[in-house]
Amino acid sequence: MSLGSELFAEMSSLVVEAPHQPVDVRAGAAPSILKKAFDVLGSFSPDRRVLSFAEVARASGLPKSTTHRVLAMLVEMGAVEQHTDGYRIGLRMFAVGACSAEVALRDIALPAMEELHRIARQTLHLAVLRGPDVVYIEKLRTHQAVPTPAVVGASLPAHWTAVGKALLAEERAESAASTEVLRSRAGRKMADPAAFAQELTLSRARGYAVDREESVAGLACIAVPIVAGGSAVAALSVAFPAAAGKGEVLLNPLRATAARIGRSLPPALRGSLLRERHAR
Amino acid sequence: MSLGSELFAEMSSLVVEAPHQPVDVRAGAAPSILKKAFDVLGSFSPDRRVLSFAEVARASGLPKSTTHRVLAMLVEMGAVEQHTDGYRIGLRMFAVGACSAEVALRDIALPAMEELHRIARQTLHLAVLRGPDVVYIEKLRTHQAVPTPAVVGASLPAHWTAVGKALLAEERAESAASTEVLRSRAGRKMADPAAFAQELTLSRARGYAVDREESVAGLACIAVPIVAGGSAVAALSVAFPAAAGKGEVLLNPLRATAARIGRSLPPALRGSLLRERHAR
DNA sequence: CGCTCGGTTCCAGTGGCCGGAACGGTGGGG
DNA sequence: CCCCACCGTTCCGGCCACTGGAACCGAGCG
């Protein structure tokens, strides 16, 4: 456990976005109060759920008085709650986030995931691709299983994870835009683009991706894409102790579950594709 | 199924907050752009996940050009995504919402809920109290079970639901502020405050609350509070067909599960109490 | 063709945002 | 004890980003 969380701490220090530089230097970005508000909201993370005023000011990079004003506004909106021990993300943000397409996906996937969870008795992950990262939508933990670094709502570099590889493999098959993604972080392992590209090709061919102790020692994952309407919208993975073998037994149930989820996705929801118009 | 959704439509039309009057008339409310942004975000709901531009403008009550500008900003922030079919809540809002204390609670409760779900084979609800309403944090559906009006992220009047009654009973035991809550909606059933107060007292005494077809015909629920550090922070309920009896068999497993969840809540999280400072 | 409705762009005026600065309170360490 | 570092709050003049009515374009439609 300490090993897992230790590794996770190391990872998250790299995962977390660049330390909130003042604003965008280019003229394009509007330094509106809305941007500041999201800087404040972005100060919170699943492993730092409660922050003091000063912590928010530091993390958001905003002047104290501005931070104070923005926080007061957010509290008034119900987006943030002020307790005696500090500020927290408010229930209102949960309610807003619950309207996202990803929650709809989670809702549909959950029964099937539960069933798989009963069978596999291992930790399950449901994640979507977001640029170079995967964002975890759901996680079904299993008692006394290998701890995994995934946290619901948080993201990890896609090329570190089985779900990420499964999704990258599909994406690359559609548009050969892999170069962008393969530009991996400096000096980090799996920095060999050619080998990684080959692994993606293999993953795509056999229909599943693997991660053997690449993110956490002792942890292995196999992942399959969830396809709906011809393209992958998410990925599902099982985590198990690396010492337990290659997990072939889990592959078929995993595939069946992913297929079942893909089939039960309403066509309207398939518009949750990765293709969102990134403005400018 | 059609019965359930029909009834839900009827309910949600009452549940949804007053149709977004212009702004607050009193001088206290700041009509800042942030307020407008949340008006826009509040236009979405779990059953209206995708809205066209005009729908957002109408629902938020903002002028067209203002709506346009605010939407563009929100898209730039990643809070909203623009697809060909309209606007949706963005993944970023899910990520922000995942930092709320309620998601932490959900995270801890989920394993125990899954286990109960296996045993009971009925739909489970996890909800918190928010003023006069309950907000659903988690819902484990069961195939071919009675459909329930609860939607994760959405709210229902507390006095219509078993979870709500369980929480109101606890709250009333702490502070006799029941009058506020008992002022129920005009002409709606269970408008008899005295009888309702008595029911709450009974619920508190026996440790669980019930709902027999009060919200949906054919649906019954029993709910127990989840207590941590001496006060109720959430409630857990099982839904079952009213024709199946009173659900006594489910009561003990339900109690055990709620107790187990309450026990496993870290003390730090208990600051998720209902007492948030509602400014001004 | 004229109408309605969805969606976008423009623009001048102004009021809301800006953030440095100053102020109280607290703790702790020399 | 004093001093300092830090947290949190408040104030205020200047300026610019927000405001929203209005005009515009295209599509559907009777």
From TrEMBL, chains A, B:
Repeat among keywords: no
InterPro entries: GAF-like_dom_sf, HTH_MetabolicPath_Reg, Tscrpt_reg_IclR_C, Tscrpt_reg_IclR_N, WH-like_DNA-bd_sf, WH_DNA-bd_sf
Organism: Geodermatophilus ruber
Name of the protein this chain belongs to: Transcriptional regulator, IclR family
Keyword DNA-binding: yes
Keywords in alphabetical order: DNA-binding, Transcription, Transcription regulation
Superkingdom as given in the UniProt entry: Bacteria
Span of domain IclR-ED: 92-271
Lineage: Bacteria, Bacillati, Actinomycetota, Actinomycetes, Geodermatophilales
UniProt GO BP: negative regulation of DNA-templated transcription
